[in-house]
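Subject: for your reference before the review

Hello V.,

The reviewers asked for a structural picture of the protein, and I figured it would be easier to keep everything in one thread rather than splitting it across files. Below is the amino acid sequence we used in the manuscript, unchanged from the supplementary table.
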Amino acid sequence: MQKKTPKQSFAERISFSVSLFIVSIIFFLVCFTWITGDNNPPILSVTTSSNIRHVKKQYYLPFTIINSGGETAESVEIVAKLLSRDLDIETGRQQVDFLSRQEKKSGEFIFNHNPTEGKLTIRVASYKLP
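And here is what came back from the structure prediction:
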C-alpha cells in the first residue's frame, strides 16, 4: 500500500517562497551587520542645555548623553558637581541602564543653587559592557 502525499496548491507554494525569501533577507542582514559592524568600545559624552528651569526654589538643568561608539554600554553613571559662590557643594548622580550605539538619552539634574552662578562639572563616571 502506497501513501499519497497531497500536492501543494499554488497559494501554498507562493506563500512558502515569500516566507523563505524574507527569512533569507533577515539572515543576510544580520550576518552583514555582524561582519561590518563597528566594534569600537562605547564613546560617551554629556552635553547640557542652557534652558535651566527655576521651579519652587530648585533649578532643573537638562542634559543629554550620547554613545557615539560602536558597542553598547550598560549602567552608565553621570555625575554633576556644583560649587556655588558660598562654597556649598551639590552633587547629583544619574544612572542610565542601557545605551546602545549611536543612541542618546536625556534627563535633568536638580540643584538648590543656580548652576549659572557657580562652577559646574558634569562627566561620565563609569559604565560596564553587557
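For the response letter, the relevant points are probably these. The longest strand covers residues 73-83. Helices lie at 10-36.

Happy to draft the paragraph if you're swamped.

O.
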